[in-house]
Amino acid sequence: MPTHEQTTDAEHIDITAAIRKAIVQGDFAPNQRLVEADLSEQFGVSRGGVRAALFELTNEGLVERIQHRGARVRAVTLDEAIEISEVRMVVEGLCAAKAAEHVSDEQIAELRGIEEAMRTAVADGHVVRYSELNKALHGRIIEISGQHTAAEVLRRLRAQNVRHQFRLALVPGRPNVSLAEHLAIIDAICGRAPDAAERAARAHLTSVIKALRAVPA
User: Fold this and answer.
1) Is this model's pTM higher than 0.85 or not?
2) CATH number belonging to domain 9-73
3) 70, β-bridge pairs
């Protein structure tokens, strides 16, 4: 068993993922203090494991450490969210183009399945379900692209931006706009058209940036 100051590799991975998930889902609010003793009790792990997890999440930009005050959930400003989306626009454009080059017949069928599920979610007004499918689609495109470095960059960027993304999904009419943009990306990838896929991905993120700027504070 790990001691108060020791942690196993498995525990470190699990607690890091658990705290990351809690932050991303909004269980921990922006600027909320993250106390090692409380987290240790909440998740049933050693304080050493919590400390290591908070250090890793600080590197990911989800947590920040304030001198003499400990750790807290980092609040991402709207300006930062826009900058993150601008970087995503470039990297996800690359991934979409590469996915169009590498996509297999089986993967095309899978993307079409996601497309149909997204259509249904929007038609039924299931915002949370659509948001989940949105995330799944972006993740699958990155996987198909085979761009491992881009995947790591995007994982961190999307985690930092998730609250703004979800807030955007709640804007009336936004899911319908987003759906059309995602369908264009899927069509281009399934058509094995790299240039069109990159343009569609960049157009989608350009739309996201424009919508973020328009969302009331």
Assistant:
1) no
2) 1.10.10.10
3) 66
In DSSP terms, 44 is beta-bridged to none
Strands 70-73 and 33-34, by their bridges, are: antiparallel
Distances from the Cα of 215 to the Cα of 82, 106, 211, angstroms: 12, 38, 6
User: Per-10-residue mean pLDDT for the chain, 217 residues long?
Assistant: 46 79 81 92 91 89 86 86 92 97 98 98 91 92 96 83 70 89 98 98 95 78
Query: 9-73 and 78-214 share one CATH topology?
Result: no
The CATH number assigned to the domain with range 78-214 reads 1.20.120.530
- Domains of the chain, residue spans: 9-73, 78-214
Which burial class, exposed, middle or buried, applies to 116 when counting CB atoms under 10 A from its CB (0-12, 13-18, 19+)? exposed
Tracing tokens 């995330």 back to the chain, one arrives at 135
Q: Rounded to whole angstroms, how far apart are CA atoms 17 and 91?
A: 24
What secondary structure does DSSP assign to 81-136, as a single string?
Answer: HHHHHHHHHHHHHHHHHHHHHH--HHHHHHHHHHHHHHHHHHHTT-HHHHHHHHHH
